[in-house]
Predict the structure.
Amino acid sequence: MKNAKHGALRLALYLHCVGIDPMPVGQSYRQQFAALLALYESLDIATRKNARRLGRQAMRNAGSLEKAAHGLIAETAHPPFIDRKRIAVIIEQMPRKEMFKRIRNGWSRRTPPCVSCRMSNGFPKRSWPSREMAEDVRLRQHDRDTLRVYSCPAMPGFWHLGHLPITQRSEVAISSAPSSSLPDSQ
Ligand SMILES: [Zn+2]
């Protein structure tokens, strides 16, 4: 067997030649090959022999295995090592409380979640106990030029990071914007 796809095609063709069209399920050629092999091995010896003979004949007639077995197995790419769709679904299904707990795990007790201000995803904003500390953090962000530091309107003495409204982003983005233009994240 050259590889799983080749093996799956060959088995699918053999089975097709004796009237069995299983269209195996499976995410990968390897899985399809395993399913087809189990099916093939469940046949009696005479039927297998007949299937191989007819299969070889079909290959000769078609010119290649690929042509003879075209459409008999599901075309598939190797599944990605990281299944991003699956991860997105898991995150989607994770209760929001649990999700915020995970976010908050990375926050120290000096930087509590705000009782009032929210990030764009709806979770409480992180609060910094001084403007300098917030500014330090801002400078370490990849999108620091669109961020500003502002004092929390709800918790005196605490500071947040927030994105500037898009219309203001061309201007210099340093700290002292009034807290009335509400930030959309961080
Ligand atoms: Zn706040």
